[in-house]
């Protein structure tokens, strides 16, 4: 398809009607911010939720897992649902469902009901992002899409950064219920603005009527396979470390079911005339490469967003609020760089920007390996800024490149799959990082403990110093020695944990650096617009 033809198709499918398209971009970004914020805001409140609802911390993790599973199930089929129901109608239904579920989550009387409402929230939230990206891709011509995705990207990438801060502050100063109540006014505002300002283009209504003319044909087998494959994979990734991976029958069964479902899904969807998920898109060079690179971006963004607060609270004794504040400067940096990235993306080829962004993230992760036990708040703040500098030059070019060369009627399906890539990459990144931390911490602890033999002069010297310190504070000599041994044990555990986090930052840096050449597989925009 030529650029002119695609631009024409884009205009006829615009959700702006006669209004300024930037107004539409702002409207859809409101719900985006609310949605992405919710993926990170609940993490810092799990202990409070568990205590308030008389549940264990391990049980409370299902508040996160069930939300992610529901998201994973609905996202890949949201493109098909938008085509059948109508994009605007489906989007408003998703926002309303998410908002109502947020209210119910805040009112939940026990953990079981909270989990049920989180599933409902995940189902509503899963359909929002693909619809929003589809609206932007159709409302803006190709030459302006990068700037539109820059505005949208502010919500997508900044929200996880401020989520822990807001969640920590609300939990510390009010109660965990408010991390859900905060969504309600934004949801109501979003529904009202979408109803008032967003237009359903005539051509989309025509396509919907044509789709339904011969009767609604639902690819039920495809739906069951994709829901089972991604839902079981999400449980496997999120619960694997807590259940010792394949040593657990529960985890092994979920892994096997997910693998078999994926093996059946690909040939089934590939041969359907009207698949519920257009797998064929993944086998095109341009979109397939965009999908892989977006997975990598999701892995880096979500894993580092979770790892840093986790590290600060476990090893540096930060409060939830303080660890969130240390990530805020990174969010500000993103806010400032997004518009610049949007402008540059319209001038420089996406593949070169992606290479530059990947290289910057790899260097920032390498810098994190210089972490020391006495690292200051400013070290974490500047490290986060450094890490965030490259991400705008990844997210926007990838989002823009993914739609290049696609027929307009494929926009809904492409939007769904690119969101699957970001979420799936994030889940894989978080899971692998937490597993590496747990295993490496055990290794480092065993190495450090080997240096505490009674014959070790260094150990005896440290033991005498710490014993004298406790004795000087008023403890009897025998008790002071026991306190000193306990203190040394805690210090070994702390250092082992720190070394494990440094290992993971090193692994992430190497993996990101190895992905830099992958961007060269993307075609230049003009070439990609004529080939698929």
Structure described in brief:
This protein is 78% helix and 0% strand.
Describe the protein in words.
This protein has helices spanning 3-12, 21-41, 46-52, 57-60, 62-85, 87-107, 111-126, 128-139, 142-173, 178-181, 183-197, 202-213, 220-239, 249-270, 285-315, 320-345, 350-367, 377-388, 392-402, 411-449, 457-472, 477-515, 525-528. It folds into four domains: 1-214, Growth Hormone, Chain: A; 219-275; 279-435 and 504-532, MFS general substrate transporter like domains (Growth Hormone, Chain: A, Up-down Bundle); 444-496, no CATH class. Residues 1-11 and 528-532 have low confidence and may be disordered. Helix 2 runs antiparallel to helix 8 (128-139) and helix 2 runs antiparallel to helix 11 (183-197). The protein is an all-alpha fold.
Report the helical percentage: over 70%
**Overall pLDDT:** 82
Largest sheet: none
What global shape is seen?
globular
State the CATH topology of the largest domain: Growth Hormone, Chain: A
The N- and C-terminal alpha carbons lie at a distance of 10 Å
The structural domain count equals 4
Binned strand content: under 5%
Q: Helix/strand/pairing class, anyone?
A: mainly alpha
CATH class of the largest domain: Mainly Alpha
Low-pLDDT stretches are 1-11, 528-532
Provide the gyration radius in Å: 25 Å
- Supply the CATH superfamily name of the largest domain: MFS general substrate transporter like domains
| Proper CATH architecture of the largest domain | Up-down Bundle
Total strands: the figure is: 0
Question: From N to C, what is the helix and strand string?
Answer: HHHHHHHHHHHHHHHHHHHHHHH
What is the tally of helical segments? Answer: 23
